[in-house]
Every structure is written in C-alpha cells, then in structure tokens.
Amino acid sequence: MHFIGGPDDAVRLAPVFAALAGTGAVQQKAVADDPGPVAALWRELVRAICPRRDVDMALHEVPRPDGPDTAASLTAASRALPELAPAVVLVGGASDKVLGWALAAAKLGLPVANVEAGLRDYDWGSAAEINRALVDTLADTLFAPSPEAVAVLAREGIDPRRIHHTGPTSVDAVRRLSARAARITAPAVLGIERGAYVLAVLDGLGAPDARDEPIARTTESLAGLARRHPVVLTLDRRGAERLAAMGDLHRLTAAGVRIATAPGYVAGLALKSGAGAVVTDSGLVQDETSALGVACFTLRAATERMVTLTHGTNHLLGTDPRELAELAPVGREPVPCAIPRWDGRAAERVARALVAAYALAPARRAS
To answer: Based on the structure, what is the number of domains in the chain?
Structure first.
C-alpha cells in the first residue's frame, strides 16, 4: 500500500508503483486521506510511466476526520489499515500525514518502508525534521537516497540489514519524463526565452501554518527581483488563494511576475529545465534541479539534501527573503549532476527489495 500524503509523495512513489507493476509479483493500492491536492498529479504520473494498464492505478480515498494533520491521519489510518491489511505500507516524505500513517501501521504491527530514509537537516525546531526522525524509527525497511543518508542511519543505530542505498526515486520521474517535458514550450508560452528567467517554487507561500508577515516579505522580494529579471512563480490552488486574499498576488503580477498555477508535473518540469535559476524551499525541487543540472538556490537555513550541496548543484540562501534580490539567471546550459545512484533506476532497486522482503510475507508480522 502506497500512502500519498501530498504532491511530493506522489512524485516519489509513482516510480515505485510503476516498477512494482512491472514485476507482476504484487498487488498494489495507492491511498490518500486528502486526495484533492494530489489526485490529478498521481493520475498524470502513473499513466505516464506505468508499463501496465491492467493494474489498479486509482488513488483511493480513505475517510478522514477533521483535526490537525497528524491526529486526523492517525485516526484515518487506524480505521482503514485493519481492513486493507497490506503486507507493507510504503511512505515517502516528512509531512504530518505521513507520520500519522506510519505510526498507525506500526501500532497495528504492519511493516513500514520509507523511500526517503536518513535525510536530516538537524533543525529540531522544524516539524519536518521531527517527522523524518520518527518515521525512520518506525520503519522496518529504509531506502536511503544518498551515501550521506546511509551514514546518518548507521550513526542512529539502525540495523544495516534494514538499510538499502537506492538513490532518490523522485529522480526516476525526472529521467523518465524529461524528454516529454522538453517538447513542451512552457517558457515560450509565458513569453520568456529559455534560460533567461528565475523560477520560484516556494511551497511555504501556501502552507496552512505560514504567517502573513513572512509571506508578504517574500512576495515583496520576488516583486523586486522581477524588476531586474523575468520571474515565474508556480503556485498550487491553495497558495494562489492565500496570496489573492492578502493582495500579494496583484502586487506580484503588477511587478511583472508570471504566475503558473498548478502546472502539472510535466509542465512544471519543463519550467524547471528551462530556467536560468530556480529558487525554492522544497526538498523535492532540490533533487529535481540537481538531476536536471539547473542552478538551485534554497531559501532555507539548512537542507536535508546535503549531497546537493557537496556536489555544487544547490546553494543555501538562508531564511532572509531579501537574498532573493541578488539572484540572476546563471546564463549557461544545464549540466546534469553525476551523483551516485541518481541514474533513474532507484525505484527498480526499491521494488526488488520490497518483493524479496514482502511478496511472500503474511500481511502481519509474527507477534
């Protein structure tokens, strides 16, 4: 069972879904307790990369009560998992929803596998960092995207037999769909030359717990940047609604910022590959830009994607949005990174390990 807690989870788990479908060794079900933001993305990804059409590709909705994400997802999972009885619950990411499902599975004695294991930025004031550490503690099988992540898990005392260095499954989606993205003229549609614009992908602008003042400071900086260089800002529906309510969406468009609302995976990949630079607060985007070779600038004080820093594909700006004013398109053709196991076959490695460990296993671990 794949739990899809948000859009980034869909990108990480769709390649694994496709790889497992190709083995013919397992039955799969993808589940969400809030499918609204992710249903279209999951459908786009799985239809694009799954080698078979005779498998259940749907994203199944599980009823979810109102309440904070962790508690609501824990309740939803506790009700749904006994009936679903999966051999293993596969998760990725560090959201409160993912933690809720991993915790419910562990309490019910169901194995958990994490495709984002071992990532740490050591910012313990961040809910995401707490979630990452807890999910890894709960997981039975840990798929590490980098050698640094393997080393973190080893330092934390995880049995080496439970750790698999697979590479990031999100890069598989980039490798599989970058040629399709190259055929999309997304930059041209926006009236900008390839390589001449800065792309902003800032999930924090639409985060439910984000405060108005930091959002306003960030949009002010983006507006200032747009007076120097072309800027494209991608927004999901919630982010667009939040900025519109604050009046910041008008401020951005008046400054010349092009808004791409919910562009979809392939169109979004086209925007990233065509950018002269990308500014983001998203871990997923750090991986994608490194795979594409596009210069990435991360508006955070730390990153759990240390391998992108050591390979020079990503640069930390810190948390002050005024740093955005100094950005500029790099002005060179993208040079894809050569990080070990970023070869687009991570999901195949994950699938082999899952089949070996769980395909013939009972749904519950022996007590």
So the answer is: 2
